[in-house]
């Protein structure tokens, strides 16, 4: 027989597992982003002085872009942590259910909210990756001119 404590523990395990999966996908996205960025690094066909100027120009653009992306990434993480906190609060509300019907309703609400949080996190990661790749491609193109 499953006790209330075991079902709540399972619920918390699912929440933490979802947060872990979101973090892992975030790390994979960043690794892919850096791999793709390395492919567009400007070439070296010009004389040494012209090459040095191009690299300096690219480094300035790269630093500005990296700063913008890191700030945006921090904002996204802040939003994700707020959503995770809200999910945990919902999970605590499930534990406070007064009767089985109330528990079922609260569990359904928690599951829907957890799925919504994961969907939003995935969409944010994809958008963040697209923005980063667009900025780096533009920076590499400007540096190559």
Write the layout of secondary structure elements.
Elements: H1 4-39, H2 48-95, H3 100-144
Helix pairs in contact: 1-2, 1-3, 2-3
Walkthrough of the structure:
This protein has 145 residues and is an all-alpha fold. It has one domain. It is 89% helix and 0% strand. The protein is built from three helices and no strands. The protein has helices spanning 4-39, 48-95, 100-144. α1 (4-39) packs antiparallel against α2 (48-95), α1 (4-39) runs parallel beside α3 (100-144) and α2 runs antiparallel to α3 (100-144). The longest helix is centred in the middle third of the chain and has 48 residues, at 48-95. It starts with a helix and ends with a helix. The mean pLDDT is 77.
| Secondary-structure element order, N to C | HHH
Alpha plus pi helix count? 3
- The general outline is rod-shaped
**What is the total domain count?**
1
Report the radius of gyration as a whole number of Å.
22 Å
Largest sheet: none
Structural class: mainly alpha
- Report how far the terminal alpha carbons are from each other: 70 Å
- Could you tell me the mean pLDDT? 77
Put the structure in a nutshell.
This protein has helices at residues 4-39, 48-95, 100-144. It is an all-alpha fold and 145 residues long. Helix 1 (4-39) runs antiparallel to helix 2 and helix 2 runs antiparallel to helix 3 (100-144).
List keywords for this structure.
145 residues; mainly alpha; rod-shaped
